[in-house]
Amino acid sequence: MISITLPDGSIKQFDQKPSGMDVALSISQGLARDCVAMELDGRLVDLGQIIEKNAAVRLITTKSPEALEIMRHSAAHVMAQAIMDIYPDAKLTIGPVIENGFYYDVDMQPVSEEAFSKIEAQMKKIVKAKVPIKRRRVSKNEAMEFYRDEPYKLEMISALEDASISFYEQGNFTDLCRGPHVPHTGFVKAFKLMKVSGAYWRADQSNAQLQRIYGTAFFDKKQLKSYLHFLEEARKRNHRKIGKALDLYSFHDEAPGMAFFHPKGMAIWNELLDYWRKEHRDAGYVETKTPIMMQRFLWERSGHWENYRENMYISSIDEHDYAIKPMNCPGGMLLYGRKHHSYRDLPIRAGEVGLVHRHELSGVLNGLFRVRAFHQDDAHIFMTPDQIQDEILGVLKLVERIYGTFGLGFSLELSTRPEKSIGTDEQWEIATQGLESALKQYGKDYKLNEGDGAFYGPKIDAHIKDALGRTWQCGTVQLDMALPERFDLSYIGQNNEKHRPIMIHRVIYGSIERFFGILVEHFAGKFPLWLAPVQVGILPINDELAPLAQNLAQDLQRAGLRTETDHRSESLNKKVREAQLNKIPLILTYGNKEKESGTVSVRTLDGNVKHGIPVPDFIKEVQANIKERKLEMDLFSR
RNA sequence: GCCGACGUAGCUCAGCAGGUAGAGCAGCUGAUUCGUAAUCAGCAGGCCAGCGGUUCGAAUCCGCUCGUCGGCUCCA
Predict the structure, then answer these.
(1) Which residues 173-202 on A are within 7 A of strand B at the CB atom?
(2) What residues does each domain of chain A span?
(3) Distance, CA of A202 to chain centre
(4) Are A535 and A562 in contact (CB under 8 A)?
(5) Tally: H helices and E strands in chain A
(6) CA pair distance A418, A454, nearest whole angstrom
(7) Chain B bases near protein Cβ (<7 Å)
């Protein structure tokens, strides 16, 4: 007699050792059809597994959060089977589940996406046949024998410590796998192959290059469709596309990975920085600027020459080596070190919007997201050990304020001491404690990444979440125990003795270029008024009114608004259409009515039009919205 | 850097069994003077990324270079 405890606490009795499927069937047929696996005493296993003793069982249905991963893993097997059917000489390696699907790395001749339809067709056949997926345990020796011609599988097996190993079989296809898997291939209903790329065996460039084929899968077609729709939406928002369409920035072969900002892009850029400066002034920061090119001996002292030279642009001038800065910190150290500091001066919060250059690999460049030249909204804070908590807290609050202005949510992660690190235990203890207690005091949940800190200190990262729910690591607060040492920084303490200051680097936008790109995608080009490159578009209804419209434009410009007048001899319809496509938040049409009454008619991007707003009222409301940097356009709602 | 795809007018793209480049939009000119998402007509615009090769002939085929995009972190 076997007793199975279900999640609701009820107990089912079985005369014979049941499988998960038997448990499901004992509840209902429908449930059994919908089950993909079970959790047996806290472990995810196949539904077909026989339960040997009394146990707690939770059935995993297609609606359970774990189900998708299990099914996607099975989908990877279905894809592998299809590939083997079509390319019998291919050698399989690994095929894990990833965030939005799965992939399989296969040693085979390079394939392109053209092969997808063939592979997908074969997969469909396998899915349609609802081939049972069966688990089989074999000894290590048996497994080695089975895979004698499969070098990758052999390598994996020999690395396994378990004495016996599990195989999964579906029809003529067998794969080494830990499982669990869905009961049969019919569960892989809605799938699509997404892309293919090269990847190295064990991610090591000296190993063979494999074909990595990516796919995604869902339990029903509707979910797959909505995922594809999401991708489409993201594609439409692509900042490279929008940046071109709205004339914000461009890239040129003459300077790969380095953005050129156009007048309209600069309008946004300057707003971002004006805002940044205001917030930092209010938070007690001063601003500095250090050269972008400095002599080799500085970089030797900071350690960059030894550890970061690969990524640095280096030049020789008058027979001396110079490097273009990849980071702002060494310059900041020189500024701190140029005079004596008293404990009374601390904390010193020195901001620097510094232009840095890093020679990233050509293949990783990606619009504004990954560039070789970018500005960091850096700041270095120098302080005494007992100021750590307050200072970190101050940064976290600033982070919250600034992201909030853009309507961006965020989450925090704390990374602690890695294996390879400098500094004493005590220093790490004080530093990590400081970050932790600041986080506690701040009160927001955070994720702990043990051992993920930099070798020179622990850090807190801020990940923002954009309008599509995608996350981006932007802000970071890093404690640095190396640089104050290397530059022999000090302050005179209360006891009249020299002490080493604690130093943090922190950024909030991170890379301004990248943050810019994120904002473009976050807002899909429809910037809030304060950021919009053209805030007001003026459309005279006919050519005769154009000069008067120009006067109106001047009045608005004097009031500090960025305006653009469309005085072409085009139809009003066309001007409206283009203004909408250019995402101008306030579109004013100017005709005889407006001329006579001294009012404006305002069209907003949602297509709503309000007539008869007196020009002074318009200016006042718009200025207020801009001044408060509002996200919403709640103008003229009276 | 590596693998794959790609590079044609300012933009979006067609042309690619090798026969000497085309559309729409934007621009310019003219007509139209318009009340909230494309008025009409005409004109102009390209060393087909660059270099080399194959060929009687190359945007088209081949090689190299440059650049762009998707990957190269997810460990049975």
Answers:
(1) 175-178, 195-200, 202
(2) 2-61, 67-228, 249-291+326-522, 536-627
(3) 24
(4) yes
(5) 20, 33
(6) 7
(7) 1-5, 7, 11-12, 26-28, 31-39, 66-76
Shortest CA to C1' contact from A102: nucleotide: B74
A329 catalytically annotated: yes
Q: Identify the pLDDT of residue A594.
A: 94
- What b/e string do you get for A373-384 counting C-beta neighbours within 10 Å, with b at 16 or more? bbbbbbbbbbbb
Residues A14, A24 contacting (CB under 8 angstroms):
no
- For A503-541, the pLDDT digits (tens) are 999 999 999 999 999 999 999 999 999 999 999 999 999
Question: Can you read off the two tokens belonging to residue A398?
Answer: 């600033």
Contact A26, A10 (CB under 8 A): no
Query: pLDDT tens digits for A447-485?
Result: 998 888 888 889 999 999 988 888 899 999 999 888 999
A170 is catalytic: no
Domain A249-291+326-522 has CATH 3.40.718.10: no
- Chain A window 257-316: residues with CB closer than 7 Å to nucleic chain B are 257
Q: Is the pLDDT of residue A111 over 80?
A: no
Q: How far is the CA of A211 from the C1' of B2 (A)?
A: 12
Distance CA A570, CA A578 (A): 11
Q: Is A376 an active-site residue? A: yes
- Nearest protein residue by Cα to C1' of nucleotide B11: A245
Q: What amino acid occupies position A262?
A: H
Query: What is the third-level CATH fold of A67-228?
Result: Threonyl-tRNA Synthetase; Chain A, domain 2 (3.30.980)
Tokens 């797959």 label which residue?
Answer: A224
Detail the DSSP E strand segments found in A368-470: 373-383, 409-415, 446-449, 459-465
